[in-house]
From TrEMBL:
GO terms for molecular function: DNA binding. InterPro entries: H-NS_C_dom, H-NS_C_dom_sf. Its main location: cytoplasm. It comes from Rhodoferax lacus. It is found in: Cytoplasm, Nucleoid. The lineage of its organism: Bacteria, Pseudomonadati, Pseudomonadota, Betaproteobacteria, Burkholderiales. This is Nucleoid-structuring protein H-NS. Keywords: Cytoplasm, DNA-binding.
Length: 117
C-alpha cells in the first residue's frame, strides 16, 4: 500500500476513535454541568442573560453597543500656503509633502513656493 492510503486509513480510524471518546465524555460533561448548576442555583434563564454579574466588586464590561458614539471634531479647512510647480498645494500643517521635500532636496527653498497673501 502507498503511504497516502495508509495515512488516510489512520485518519479515518482516529476520527472514529475521537467521535467515540467525545460521545462518552459528552454525557459526563453534561452531568457535571447540571450538578454545578444545581449547586450554585443557576437556571437556564441565568445562562441566557445578556450581562454577567461583576466579580469581586468590579464593574462589568460595557458592550460596544452600550457606549456612546465618539463625536469627531469638525475643523475648518485651512487655506493653502504653498503651491508646487504642478499645482500641488500644502497648508503648511503636518508633515512636509513628498513633492515639496523632493524640491527642497534639489536645492530649492520652501519660501519659493509660498502663495502670496
Amino acid at each position: 500500500m502507498s503511504k497516502l492510503i495508509d495515512l488516510q486509513t489512520q485518519i479515518a480510524h482516529l476520527q472514529k476513535q475521537a467521535e467515540e471518546i467525545r460521545g462518552k465524555e459528552f454525557e459526563a460533561t453534561v452531568t457535571e454541568i447540571r450538578q454545578k448548576m444545581q449547586a450554585f442555583g443557576i437556571t437556564i434563564k441565568d445562562l441566557q442573560a445578556t450581562k454577567v454579574k461583576s466579580k469581586a466588586g468590579r464593574k462589568p464590561k460595557v458592550a460596544a453597543a452600550d457606549k456612546p458614539a465618539k463625536v469627531k471634531k469638525v475643523t475648518a479647512a485651512v487655506a493653502a500656503k504653498y503651491r508646487g510647480p504642478n499645482g500641488e498645494t500644502w497648508s503648511g500643517r503636518g508633515l512636509t509633502p513628498k513633492w515639496l521635500s523632493s524640491l527642497i532636496a534639489q536645492g530649492n527653498t520652501k519660501e519659493q513656493y509660498l502663495i502670496p497673501a
